[in-house]
Amino acid sequence: MNIKTFKVFHSRNYKLYFCGQSVSLIGTWMQYTAVYWLIYAQTHSTFMLGLVAFATQFPSFLFSPLGGVISDRYNRYKLLLTTQIASLIQATLLMLLIVFMQNNIAGIILLSTLLGIINAFDVPARQSMVYEIVQHKEDLPNAIAFNSSMVNVARLIGPALSGIILEKFGASACFLMNALSFLAVITSLLFMRFPIVLQKPPAKKVMGELKEGWKYIKQTPSIGLVILLLACVSFLVLPFSTLLPVYAKTIFKGGASIFGYLNSAIGLGAVAGAFFLALLKKGIDLKKVLFINLFIFGGGLVLFSHMTNLPMALFFAMLTGFGMMSQTTIIMTIVQTNVSATMRGRVISYLMMAFAGMQPLGGLLIGFLSQYIGAPNTLVGEGIAAMLIALIFFPLLRKNILAEEDKIKLIELEDPLIDINKKYGN
């Protein structure tokens, strides 16, 4: 890794964004860990774990297309500032709920739903704004890679801290720390500087813009297929994390700290995966990397599933995190570097539907299945699903993306003066 890798930090706004988000994401992972542990400790039900995952993420599935349209129509900076303040309020309410109403399960689920609605507007604005805050656009792939590393470092640190704090001070302390962490990102946003841009009035109605975004994805296989792949992985494989409290409490006979260590092991593997991607040579076929890492993801889950030795389980959890990490980063890189600026918010909202929207549906399915066949057998099924998805999508990606590249070359030959970016919105 050479000094050019860090050139993106010459962008003042990106440096501020990175620092603020790094603190905030640690708090977010602390809250997630505390919520799932609290639910399982109170109910001992894998179905309830699936239900709280559904409550947190399904609103994103419903509202993220609207969030994408709003992100494309209005000032993304102001929208992001609003969602971060709303997230701070949500975390504070969660803390107050635990302090004054003890472990109110219905209240936790209700506030989790509120967070899901906030995220539906937050993520399209946040992901789209990355393009705007990077000063030199050739640094965008590096910015995306650093964003992934930031998320996974937070996943490494947040759950481990949460596990320790849960045992010593309780869930309310985790929620308080998450609320305070939003002050970092809000402060960083307030210090950013943007050129004054006159906001154009929307030319189309909301439904028209949603249809336009959907049509764009259908006509761009290099984007549409990877989003569909992510939807399948999110539905059938990524909800494995819903069952980690079962492993911590029932299989390894531990407490909140063991749950935190399992999550952190996955985070450590994901960080290793991020560095692996950062060190890849320029021009390497990312589709092959995606294919291989989906197999590593699936194999890691199968090996972890029936492991009763904790050190070995932590190792296979790291392997799982390594394989898991690359798919979302590669897909985000493909989307961010190929999508039209005018479509960015809407396309990212559909990407969010695939990622965060399908997970809660999968979480309900995984929670229901594990009640009958057990958590270990459910994870085996998820690992096999990851490998099958790789086998099905790899030839489809090669065929359709090559066809799209040939189409662009043909148009260039027919009319060398044509602006391909304008024609395809790329």
Can you describe this structure?
By secondary structure, the protein is an all-alpha fold. It has a single domain, classed as MFS general substrate transporter like domains (Growth Hormone, Chain: A, Up-down Bundle). The two termini are 29 Å apart. The chain is built from 15 helices and no strands.
Task: Chart the SSEs and their pairings.
Layout: H1 12-43, H2 46-73, H3 76-101, H4 105-133, H5 140-168, H6 171-190, H7 206-218, H8 221-236, H9 244-251, H10 256-278, H11 286-305, H12 310-338, H13 344-373, H14 375-414, H15 420-424
Helix pairs in contact: 1-2, 1-4, 1-5, 1-6, 2-4, 2-13, 3-4, 3-6, 4-13, 5-10, 5-12, 8-12, 8-13, 8-14, 9-10, 10-12, 11-12, 11-14, 12-13, 13-14
Q: Tell me the strand percentage band.
A: under 5%
Count of structural domains: 1
Cα shape: globular
Order of helices and strands: HHHHHHHHHHHHHHH
Q: What number is the mean pLDDT?
A: 80
- CATH architecture, by name, is Up-down Bundle
- The CATH topology is given as Growth Hormone, Chain: A
Radius of gyration, in Å, reads: 21 Å
Largest sheet: none
Please identify the top-level CATH class: Mainly Alpha
| C-alpha termini separation | 29 Å
Low-confidence stretches: 402-426
Q: State the secondary-structure class.
A: mainly alpha
- Residue share in helices? over 70%
User: Can you identify the CATH superfamily?
Assistant: MFS general substrate transporter like domains
User: How many H/I helical runs?
Assistant: 15
Strand elements, count: 0
